[in-house]
């Protein structure tokens, strides 16, 4: 129940690349840990600017808490390919293992083989809106 599931990345109808189940996943199971480099907010801000200057269109920065962000842009795992969806089949949870905080993706419901893994990014509300591309019936229209 707690082993990493068999997953693959491939072309997504939501946004460029996505992550897909290669085996059935039951509800409330661990799907994958979001892996990358733990950095502070000030470093994340600098990297975000540098990535934009380098032409890296997508950065993979995931906030753990007020002080810590996981940067999976250059040294992450397949979890970075999980797309946002307004009606997701998974959710992210911060857990602590041996005094270290980790982000783990869990299934909200049963997920079938070849189904895309998604979660709600829960971006903070900002004036500059990021369009949502999930196209579900209850799509909010923006990620933030």
TrEMBL record:
Enumerate the subcellular locations listed in this protein's record, separating them with semicolons.
Nucleus
Keywords (A to Z) from UniProt: Chromatin regulator, Methyltransferase, Nucleus, RNA-binding, S-adenosyl-L-methionine, Transferase
Recorded superkingdom: Eukaryota
A GO molecular-function descriptor: histone H3K4 methyltransferase activity
Q: What is this protein called?
A: SET1A methyltransferase
Taxonomic source organism: Melospiza melodia (Song sparrow)
Query: Domain named Post-SET: which ranges?
Result: 128-144
Q: Which PANTHER family match?
A: HISTONE-LYSINE N-METHYLTRANSFERASE SETD1, HISTONE-LYSINE N-METHYLTRANSFERASE SETD1A
GO term, biological process aspect, one: methylation
């Amino acid at each position: 129940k707690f082993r990493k599931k068999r997953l693959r990345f491939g072309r997504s109808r939501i946004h460029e690349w996505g992550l897909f189940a290669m085996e059935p996943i039951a509800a409330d199971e661990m799907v994958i840990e979001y892996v990358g480099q733990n950095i502070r907010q000030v470093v994340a801000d600098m990297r975000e600017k540098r990535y934009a200057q380098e032409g890296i269109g997508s950065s993979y920065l995931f906030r753990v808490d007020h002080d810590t962000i996981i940067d999976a842009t250059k040294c992450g795992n397949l979890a970075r390919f999980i797309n946002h969806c307004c009606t997701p089949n998974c959710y992210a949870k911060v857990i602590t293992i041996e005094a270290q905080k980790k982000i783990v993706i869990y299934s909200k419901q049963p997920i079938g083989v070849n189904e895309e893994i998604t979660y709600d990014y829960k971006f903070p509300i900002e004036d500059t809106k990021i369009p949502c591309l999930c196209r579900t019936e209850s799509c909010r229209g923006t990620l933030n």
